[in-house]
Structures are given as structure tokens and as C-alpha cells.
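Your task
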Amino acid sequence: MSSVLEYTEASRPPFSSEAGETVASLDTVTKRYGNGVVALDKLSLTLRRGEVVALLGPNGAGKSTAVKLLMGLSSPTAGAVRIFGADPRNNVARLRTGVMLQVGRAPEMLRVREHIELFRGYYPNPMPYTEIIQAAGLEGIEGTMFGHLSGGQKQRVLFALALAGDPDLIFLDEPTVGMDIKARRGMWATVRSLAARGKTILLTTHYLEEADVLAHRIVVIDKGRVVCEGTPAEVKSLGSATSGSSSSRSLKIIRCVTTLPTTTLLAIPGVTSAELKGSTTTIISSKPEATLRELLALDQTLHSIEVQSPALEDAFLALTADRE
């Protein structure tokens, strides 16, 4: 099994926001429903050519509404929505768009091959059949009926259908739900390849590791507004600052086995929290090097030391916590 450590900034396709042309945008969009619920509140979002953007937020944050607007399935109450410079409902613009919805369905009695050929027939310049099969990892199951596939295999077929028209803009809504690790990593590789070819991908996912390793840019929304946006590293730093770190860029998580009580650990300069679970103590410090030196000086038996940067999950929870 591949290590998560293989999927780092170095493996993410290069992207320059200055060079990428705008492919889709929400410009100060408000979406208000008839029951008085404000799903989006003056939200702006820009997607550029060759960019993978992860749209994150808690349930009810407005992610699905934003995607529906970009797909032309809904209209804004105020503001403007554009894809390829046109209204999302424009047929020419739609032909350049591929969509994989979390709630997607397909006829159970059609075979995988039949589904793909059917969808390819909707487009004037579809992606070659063999490329779709390879990109979605469907080799060997082309003759299987959709209804006989596992949950993860069905997800891969729906991904294949999103690629059928060789789209320039692709919406992926929770694309790897139900997939095993091998299939998930395969899809990650395909997404990277698509971005390297100049395709634009908007990804919504609850797997924060997925957003961390794939996205050039992460946009976190809550209650219909953008909370923050930036590279995965920038978002993690912002989350650290939100949670109260005075030196967010150097914030580190230290795990170790120590005989020192938490009261002693909290007195070490830079340590913002210390918690013992089982035999392992987890320390968060804004001065990790100094903290480690102090730990080694105070406890000669210190062992099993691990140092990590805060996870995207930590930043996400801090950024979307209830605020006044």
C-alpha cells in the first residue's frame, strides 16, 4: 500500500493562478429559498484553467447550492454565474462540462460498456472509449451490468460518465465514497492527470485528506459565506491562527511517551496544549524545536517521538466552529 506521505506538494500538478484563464465564476452570488433560508450570502468563487479546487464546508454550508448554480440547475437570487463566459444553461457551455454527483444513478440492466458508449454519443467530440476505461479503472468489468457492481465500482462508472464528453470543467461531488484505497488512489492519479492537461476540477469531499493531496486551492465556506481560501498549507496555517496560535506557521503536533505530567508540559514555553491518552502524550507547540530540547532535558526516558504539522481536519474544525 502506498504511503500517504507520497502525496505531497511535490506530487500536486503545478499551477499558476496568474496564468490560468477564468473558466467559471460566482460573482457576489446570493441564493435565497422561498422558506427564507439563505443558502449563499454574497459568495464569490473563481475557477481557473488547470486548477483543482476543493470546496469544503460543514453540512448545510452551501456547497451543493454553489455547485447547482454552476451547473445551471438553479438560478441565483442576486449576483452572476458564468462558465466559459456564458450562462451555465447555455448548451455549448454545457457540452464542455462533466458532472459526477454523489446521488448519481444509472440504469441497472445496462452494461458498463453500454453506459459509456451511450454517454459518448451525446457529445460531438467525446473522449476515446479506451481512455475513459483506463482513466476510471474499469478494465475487466466492461461487460458487467451496472446493477451487479459493488458500490465502489458504481462510483468509478459514474466518474467515467463524467469524462465521456472530454470536458474542460468537471464537477466531482464526493467522488470516492465507497471506494477501496487502491481505487481511491487511482482516481487521485487521474484527477492529477486531467489537471495537468488543462482541465478544471471542482471537488467537494468529506475526506479532508483527499482535498489536502489533490487541491491547488481550498475554499472553505460556512453559512453561505467564504471563511477562507488558499493553498492547503495556507488554510492549515489560517486554521492554526484561528484556534489561537500566535505563531501558526511553526505550529507542530508532538507525540511522545514521557513520564512528565501535563502540568510540567504546559509550563514549557510554546506549548499550548498537552493531553495524555493511553501511554502517548500529544503536545501542540508553536516553538517545536525549543519544546523538544526542553523535553529531552527534563525526561531522559523520553521515547517514541513523532512530530507532525497540524492536519487539514484540525484547520477545518477551527475555521468552521460557531462564531459570534
Summary: Residues 1-10 have pLDDT under 50 and may be disordered. The longest strand covers residues 22-32.
